Amino acid sequence: MPSKSLPLYKRILFTILAFIFALYCLIWVLSSPIIKYFAKEPLAEYGLTLSSDSTISFNPFLTRITVADLTLLKDNSPVLKAEQLALQLALHKLPLDIIKLEEFSINGVVVNVEKTNDDLWVAGVNLTPKSTEIDHQNKPEVTDTVKTDKESTSTEPLPYQVQLENLVLSKTTIDILLNGSPHTFDIKELLISNIKASQTQQSANLKLNALFDKAAIKLTSELNLQNNEGYIGSDLIVSKYSLNNIKHLIEPVESLDGLFSFSSNQNVKITSQGMDITVKQAELSTENVITSTKEQNISLENLVYSMNDFSMNIANNELEQNQLKAITGTAQLTLKNALVEALPSNNEKSEDDKSQQILSFAQLNVNNITPKLSAASESDLTLAPSVFIESLNLNQLLFSQNTTNELPPVATINNINISDITGSAEALSINEINIDSITSHIILNKEKVLANLVNISSSKNTETESTPEAEQTAQTQDTATSSSRATPESSTQKPFYISVNAFNVTNKNQIDFVDNSVDPIYKRSFMIDELAMGKLSNLQENTEAKTPISLKGRSNEYANFAFNGFIQPFAKKKTYHIKGDLNELSLPDVSTYMKDALKLELKSGQLNTKLDVTLIDDDISGDVSININGLETAAANNHETNLVKDQVGIPFNVALGMLKDGNGDLILDVPLSGKTSSPSFGISSFIALITKKAVMSATQDYLMTTFVPYANIVSVAMSAGEFILKLRFEDLPYEPKQVTPNEKQAEYIKQFIAVMKDQKNTRVKICAISTPSDIGLPAQHKLSEADIKALKTIGDERERAFKSSVVQDKQIETGRILLCTPQIDNSKGAIPRMVISV
């Protein structure tokens, strides 16, 4: 037989090989049930079991472990699934101290992860380390024993190097439950290639393509380290992640919607001296973000933050541990269409309630944000971080609009530009602030509260009111105690320095003021043509420098003002100086604020004033020159021309008459002196002037010869009880409800303009007389407050329309035509008319 012819050693070798082959085959066949059997006990410690169809086999021929259809169950519910897992080891590399994995692939894994405040569960296993009680008396002995054992068993690190061509993880899903909120991490493919790992060298390439809560994530990375020195580079892209998935992480937020995206390219270089971090490009953006709390809604259409060529050097050596040594780069920030709204409180909420607009803007650009490192001071060379911003632009800013009462917003600004901003923990420096086109509406209600200001503290006030009084008292005492303790510390804190080189308000700026708390309602508009301020700084070398300021503008139709001066708010003696003038202020407009105090109204008059005032600490000094043209008064609330109560108006008019010059003007120079805490403001000088000054000048011949050519509209009469002649214009009749002059009045207006052009020094006051026919009522009808207000409104419109038609060609100065408080004639046969007097 052929077998008998084989040498003995071959038969022995064949037998050994056959035995090994048979053993390997037996191991391969029995590996799955054996592994599943011995896995029961350790899995049972965690309450886990393997499903019956799970397959785990070991191929000894290839040194390969294969897992198929693996399912781990806990309470009969799957906590981990794996369709396929393959791990193959190259045994022939072990003698060379190399652990080479020829294959490592995982496919179709589904695993459950749950994180609570206290525990972390992965695949049904709690990975949170549990604390154990240790006998403190025996603790030193245990420590010494362990130390001795470590010393006796310490060995050098194993010299093995791990090599793996490719680690592939695909079609894997990680279901995450984070404090009750679900998240899903779907790994389409994770490829880690060219893996080499030893005690001295680590290198690998990584590529990830995944979805996190349905948002695409792409990551590529390269690692190459030699003796803890080397290079790590990566590219990361996150596309359109829904912010609604993370609203539970922000406690005050009740709702959060919008999309988040991020991309970056960064490199880390590690050396023995430290670390260099470089970000070549990074961009963070959001879209259509809407979030709300109990008190507010916030929405932002778009945010883009981009960073380029950013680098940072961190020193880490024997002399310096984790010290920031250098930082460079630039960044840009853009926000579009932002809106902050206040919500009605729960106690006051109703179906008709609307959200109130606190703040909004169309676009915010922050350009060229550059980080810097510089010495903290001349004496302290420690590097302190700071940031430089080339410019900040804010467009179409709106502040506080109460939408329930349909009032205009408190303020809107077309553009704010701030240039060359440098900020740090110690100082803030700004080159220039320019504000373009401010429109403001200050509207007071009957309680003198801003009616168009959004109330954002209602809910907070409600919570405060519900706090027990004793608790509030305790809180107040605690606050007072802590404040008193903090006072010594705060006194030793370094001052924060602020420097602004220029502040300007340009283009069209208007402030509309409406006061509904007075009767009649007061309205005034201020147009700011120029507002400028020079350099202002609290730096030690600039505290005594004068900061120039200037203000120019107009009010209503004809009033104008111009002021300039300087301020020294940080000087040892704080100084404020202002010089300027206010012209053509119509006094009947401000009469509403004086009638309650003086029990009289200003029927007519125009104020022109000049001032030159200086305030040093609380000492005020200076002069105010007052020129009041055509001032006349009457009893308060005297609306009807036939019911004049002169017992109040006449004595004051007589006193003022002693101060008037030949043109009927009141000219006063009032010195200001004293302290702002108890100012005198020259009141005694004012009283002395009343008793000293009396000027009378008028001649009959001059008046008669001057105004005869205009006899159709002008007459000359001797006033009863007076020794001067007065001019009188004939009344100009109006049709009921007529406001604008018509063709029938053209000839009168033509002659009136001719008189004013011919007589350059003549100044007149116009007073509209309204009758009940203007509002469709009969004569001698009892007028209500609403009727009186309507008739005075018509009269005011007539006066302004008449003045506008007369001065439209700009050949007659507006200051020569004064307005008075409109009057009402409720007598029988009365007609609407315009009364003009000199």
Helical proportion, percent range: 10-25%
Q: What oligomerization state is this entry in?
A: single chain
- Total of DSSP H or I helical runs spanning 4+ residues: 11
**Overall mean pLDDT:** 80
Q: Which structural class best describes the helix and strand composition?
A: alpha+beta
Count of DSSP E strands?
A: 38
Description:
The N and C termini lie far apart (155 Å). Helices cover 19% and strands 49% of the residues. The protein is built from eleven helices and 38 strands. The strands form three sheets. It has a 31-stranded mixed beta sheet that branches. Strands 34, 35, 36, 37 and 38 form a five-stranded mixed beta sheet that branches. Residues 132-138, 150-154, 459-470, 479-491, 642-655, 679-705 and 716-725 have low confidence and may be disordered. The chain is of the alpha+beta class.
Feature tags:
838 residues, alpha+beta, 5-stranded mixed beta sheet
Topology:
Elements lengths: L7 H37 L4 E2 L4 E5 L4 E11 L2 E14 L7 E18 L4 E3 L2 E2 L12 H15 L7 E18 L2 E17 L3 E12 L2 E12 L2 E14 L12 E17 L2 E19 L3 E20 L7 E20 L13 E20 L7 E19 L9 E13 L3 E18 L13 H9 L2 H23 L5 E10 L2 E7 L6 E12 L2 E2 L9 E9 L3 E10 L6 E12 H4 L4 H4 L1 E17 L2 E17 L10 H12 L7 E11 L2 E2 L3 H10 L7 H8 L6 E5 L6 E5 L2 E2 L12 H13 L5 E7 L14 H23 L9 E3 L3 E2 L8 E5 L1
Parallel strand pairs: 5-8, 20-21, 20-22, 35-36, 35-37
Antiparallel strand pairs: 1-3, 2-3, 3-4, 4-5, 5-6, 6-7, 8-9, 9-10, 10-11, 11-12, 12-13, 13-14, 14-15, 15-16, 16-17, 17-18, 18-19, 19-20, 21-23, 21-24, 22-23, 23-25, 25-26, 26-27, 27-28, 28-29, 29-30, 30-31, 32-33, 34-38, 35-38
